[in-house]
């Protein structure tokens, strides 16, 4: 039955990667575990919560892995137990050996554990990926555009399509859109078209959770190989593979929400506005409804907030410029704060129409383009139009 | 009504110190707040949860404090709100002004908050301290001996006297003892007697919680001035004062538990044994009763553990030496781990009698003294005597 010896640190790192997908909360016992498969060429580790699956392969060809497979085989071992155990063992190497009844002996230094394992045949089979399209995206770019849009992904399952990021890949660019119907994030970046994309863009709705996990396993200098089927997507990064379901359904056309016909503009440092919003939130933290008000007139721009229990807040903002009609508009400070953070310290332009229409935040540098934008729907307060 | 301007960073630090005593869980509304008293000489901040009170004084004589008191007075403001607000304000200085109805305007930079305060007359009065004894202990020493004994303080209120550390101060030394009836920690250090101690030692039972808070506000290079009354103790460190109740009742005489008549000894590196216990705990974490077994015979010393759900663990320990009768003894690994950590990496001697009698851990260097010791009561398992 399965037996191998491996470098403990390498094994530890690989377990931590696949353990991200294994769930401790699932009612399906085998999914609390990690499947370990020893073949003649190496060790394949699999963790899954049924919607996301992560695999990592440790090759016996790489000397650094110090991997010697004495006997091929497979086992399922509890994910969190195995991870914390391997990280605490004393030796440089660790040996795993499956004995009878899926009992697994783990030895390192003078330590020896015997763990109760599970039958590897009970582990769910991964879908065969028969991709209609295959392409490549640089890791640092994909992480960046995910970060800029994932903030607007909905956590509410009522409209499942909004729990994902809508991705469109055409011959010249990559477009991501996310919305929870109160706010919207959009990012368009130029991307050289992969060879086999035709005239029709590739359109995918990828679950936000899968992209959160993907971010954690991609390093900046790696490319991500992506394979797409009708209902599955596979991301390959180095020796690691992440499988995810795709969301079904149509993502609404959101382009009609975006307009350059603003009546009022405000230019401001995103960093300064974030600080002011953070101060306003201190006051509102204990209140029931979080609302912050922004008032612009010819002379000044004032941010204010009010909580019946706690008191009130008012701050005149340092701005870079403002133009257009006077305006008084109210909104959720959490939305504004997370939107501003995607600009990474840049100066931004906020483009308002009226107090009841959504407003746009774009980089001041490229204020007329929709390539990087955040949209926020205001809160109607008594007296606003 | 009260008005002053102060350096924001200094005010922030002082608030964080007194906020440690203010409780957000108390049913007494004023104790959720911090009392701010502005006098002609400075600002006195007070936080209290009724058993522990911390005061900090910011003097107007110290230029660094940038303190200008325009009008004397007092106010109570919500502790957590005030702390997080002051830490986020934009300016170098902050101005507080009480207006009507205990409304308090807090201004810094372009920010202005108005908070609902409470009537300062409603704040509980501190007891007058009329000490029968006053003495001084170096901060680093007191912190160290608290750390070495506080681990055995009971969290169970059934015997209140065990929720504190028993402190005896005589002419030549300071002795601390804590026990929760399953384990005991003792530390004796030489300490030059303060002037006004007579032949009778000073005996105090100080709540563990108060000493935990004290540890946080003492820096290593400061002396602690201590004043004692019959039921109160006051610790003064720099500009900060911590008042605590003393526990009533008699602490039992624990000296009869300590004996040098061991039948088996084990010398081992505390660091190595901590690692082995940590590994054993991984296996036991999900089990219901945490028990680890130590077996000594002529040839080797083995640590083992067993969990019906998870599996079992066995490790032969690297030891420095062992002597005496063979022994098999079981105990709570958490107790052993926290006891070993108090030795700060030193080699220790563990002194056993039988499998059913408490065992002692002492530094290997000074194995015959009781000046630094941890005692643990074993767990009787089927088959142990």
Helix and strand arrangement:
Two copies of one chain form a homodimer.
Chain A: E1 3-7, H1 8-19, E2 33-38, E3 42-48, E4 52-59, E5 68-71, E6 73-78, H2 79-88, E7 93-98, E8 103-108, E9 111-116, E10 133-138, H3 139-149, E11 164-169, E12 173-179, E13 183-190, E14 202-207, H4 208-217, E15 223-228, E16 232-237, E17 240-245, E18 264-269, H5 270-284, E19 292-296, E20 301-307, E21 311-316, E22 321-324, E23 327-331, H6 333-341, E24 347-352, E25 359-363, E26 372-376
Antiparallel strand pairs in A: 1-5, 1-7, 2-3, 2-6, 3-4, 4-17, 7-8, 8-9, 10-15, 11-12, 11-14, 12-13, 13-26, 15-16, 16-17, 18-22, 18-24, 19-20, 19-23, 20-21, 24-25, 25-26
What does this structure look like?
The structure is a homodimer of 385-residue chains. Chain A folds into three domains: 3-122, Roll (DNA Polymerase III, Chain A, domain 2), CATH 3.10.150; 137-224, DNA Polymerase III, subunit A, domain 2 (DNA Polymerase III, Chain A, domain 2, Roll), CATH 3.10.150; 258-376, Proliferating Cell Nuclear Antigen (Box), CATH 3.70.10. Chain A is built from six helices and 26 strands. Chain A is elongated, with a radius of gyration of 26 Å. Chain A has 385 residues and is α+β, with helices and mostly antiparallel strands. Chain A has helices at residues 8-19, 79-88, 139-149, 208-217, 270-284, 333-341, and strands spanning 3-7, 33-38, 42-48, 52-59, 68-71, 73-78, 93-98, 103-108, 111-116, 133-138, 164-169, 173-179, 183-190, 202-207, 223-228, 232-237, 240-245, 264-269, 292-296, 301-307, 311-316, 321-324, 327-331, 347-352, 359-363, 372-376. In chain A, helix 1 (8-19) packs antiparallel against helix 2 and helix 5 runs antiparallel to helix 6. In chain A, the strands form four sheets. A nine-stranded antiparallel sheet of chain A has the order 14-11-12-13-26-25-24-18-22. In chain A, a hairpin with a 4-residue loop joins strand 19 and strand 20. In chain A, 17% of the residues lie in helices and 40% in strands. The longest helix of chain A is centred in the last third of the chain and has 15 residues, at 270-284. The A-B interface holds A 78, 81, 84-85, 88-90, 103-104, 109-116, 275-276, 278-279, 282-283, 285-286, 309-318 and B 78, 81, 84-85, 88-90, 103-104, 109-116, 275-276, 278-279, 282-283, 285-286, 309-318. Chains A, B: Forms a ring-shaped head-to-tail homodimer around DNA. Chains A, B: Residues 137-253 form the DNA polymerase III beta sliding clamp central domain. Chains A, B: InterPro entries: DNA_clamp_sf, DNA_polIII_beta, DNA_polIII_beta_C, DNA_polIII_beta_cen, DNA_polIII_beta_N. Chains A, B: Residues 260-369 form the DNA polymerase III beta sliding clamp C-terminal domain. Chains A, B: Belongs to the beta sliding clamp family.
């Amino acid at each position: 039955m399965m037996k191998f010896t491996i470098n403990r640190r390498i094994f530890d790192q690989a377990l931590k990667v696949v353990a991200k997908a294994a769930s401790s909360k699932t009612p399906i016992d085998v999914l609390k575990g990690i499947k370990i498969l020893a073949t003649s060429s190496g060790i394949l580790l699999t963790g899954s919560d049924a919607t996301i699956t992560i695999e990592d392969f440790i090759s016996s060809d790489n000397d650094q892995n110090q991997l010697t497979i004495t006997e091929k085989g497979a086992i399922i071992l509890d994910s969190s137990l195995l991870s914390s155990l391997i990280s605490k063992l004393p030796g440089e190497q660790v040996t795993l050996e499956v004995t009878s009844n899926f009992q697994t002996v783990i030895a390192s230094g003078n330590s020896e554990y015997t763990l109760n394992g599970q039958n590897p045949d009970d582990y769910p089979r991964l879908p065969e990926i028969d991709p209609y399209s295959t392409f490549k995206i640089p890791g640092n770019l994909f992480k960046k555009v995910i970060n800029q849009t994932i903030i607007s992904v909905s956590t509410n399952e009522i409209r499942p399509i909004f729990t994902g990021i809508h991705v469109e890949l055409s011959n010249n660019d990559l477009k991501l859109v996310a919305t929870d119907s109160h706010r919207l994030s959009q990012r368009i970046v130029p991307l050289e078209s992969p060879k086999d994309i035709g005239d029709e863009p590739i359109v995918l709705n990828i679950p936000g959770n899968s992209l959160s996990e993907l971010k954690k396993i991609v390093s900046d200098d790696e490319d991500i190989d992506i394979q797409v089927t009708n209902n599955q997507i596979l991301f390959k990064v180095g020796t690691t593979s992440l499988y995810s379901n795709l969301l079904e359904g149509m993502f609404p056309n959101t382009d009609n929400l975006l307009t350059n016909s603003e009546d009022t503009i405000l230019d401001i440092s995103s960093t300064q506005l974030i600080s002011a919003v953070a101060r306003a939130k201190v006051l509102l933290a204990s209140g029931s409804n979080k609302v912050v008000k922004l008032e612009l007139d010819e002379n000044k721009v004032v941010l204010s907030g009010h909580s019946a229990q706690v008191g009130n807040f008012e701050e005149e903002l340092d701005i870079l410029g403002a133009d257009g009609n006077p305006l008084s508009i109210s909104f959720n400070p959490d939305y504004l704060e997370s939107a501003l953070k995607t600009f990474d310290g840049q100066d931004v332009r906020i483009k308002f129409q009226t107090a009841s229409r959504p407003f746009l935040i774009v980089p001041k540098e490229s204020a007329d383009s929709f390539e990087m934008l955040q949209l926020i729907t205001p809160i109607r307060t008594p007296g606003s139009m």
